Amino acid sequence: MNEIAAFPLVQLGQSDLRVTPICLGTMTFGEQVDEPTAHAILDRAVERGVNFLDTAEMYAVPARRETCGATETIIGRWLTARPGMRQRLVLATKVAGPSRGMPWVRNGLGMTAADIAASCEGSLRRLRTDVIDLYQIHWPERHVPAFGQLYYDPAKEKSETPIHEQLQALGRLVRAGKVRHIGLSNETPWGVHEFVRLAEQHGLPRVATVQNPYGLLNRSWDNALDETCHRLGVSLLAYSPLGFGLLTGKYDQHAPTDRGAQQDARIARFESVRKQRWGRPEALAGARRYNQLARDHGLTPTQLALAFCYRSWRVASTIIGVTTLAQLDENLDAWSVQLVPELLAEIDAIRWQWRDPAQ
């Protein structure tokens, strides 16, 4: 196992949470990754200095009724078997928004105060903890373009739960000591502004973070959310920095749907994932450009993609998802990679041509 220098700690927003700039994402636990392997990955991450874990009530992914909550349960059993471990970690999870075709997660079109409270209690029980350090809304209750949709359509607006009501529900959880800080995910500039405005107006919890996609194939964050969150003091937690594997180079010879692709990979195994932004032909074509750029500069595709996120001023912590110990070590070792200005300029030149093919 390679060794890396100790990670610095990063403050999340205006909260008192201080986390490593690399966060272990866990959504594969309970689907691609069995429990013993998940525990080994968690152990290795902590051994190597990671103090930040992210999960969600709806995980494992791709979402199925049979595995809903499985990831939190696996983490809870891991924590219980290691006395004192909980105090060393910043633990983040998420409350699911409206159903989006998953009635086993949420009934109806809304996300009521009662839904938020019940979901929090379920996560606390599965995680076997008394408090969640960062509790995030997984996707907005209102209808926004997300998960591969590009355009906002007012005709589809069916919001049933005002943001003020959501904040009040989260505030009750904070006052009860069940949640320390709150965050958002898959949000828009307007949404972030509104959550902050209402929190400050009504003395309610202020969002510390937004967890959105960010990486070489999707830099939509740079088109308004970067300024929004910088000025408001809200931190980015970047997810999918490797583009569901496209930016590792493993699909450079074969598309995810080809027989030659790695069939154990998430994008290769699950049709629902391929139909989203990561399965677009232009996303694969763009990834191949970045991957070749990495090789031209003596780097692996994974090193280039992760270093881009790790060293960006926009990113507080990058969420990595792995299925093996080898992948974990590779991702952590990439922390030592520095990208010179000339290489960053070449990255921007590719983006100018390809823009954000996995937005």
TrEMBL record:
Q: Which UniProt keywords apply?
A: Oxidoreductase
In this protein, which residues make up the domain named NADP-dependent oxidoreductase?
21-350
InterPro entries xrefs: AKR_Detox_Biosynth, NAD(P)_OxRdtase_dom_sf, NADP_OxRdtase_dom
Q: Which domain of life is it from?
A: Bacteria
State the CDD domains in the record.
AKR_Tas-like
The reply on keyword Oxidoreductase is yes
Coiled coil start-end: none
Q: A single Gene Ontology molecular function, please?
A: oxidoreductase activity
**Oxidoreductase listed as a keyword:** yes
| Pfam family of the protein (one) | Aldo_ket_red
- Under what name is this protein listed? Aldo/keto reductase
UniProt organism field = Melaminivora suipulveris
Write the lineage as a comma-separated list.
Answer: Bacteria, Pseudomonadati, Pseudomonadota, Betaproteobacteria, Burkholderiales
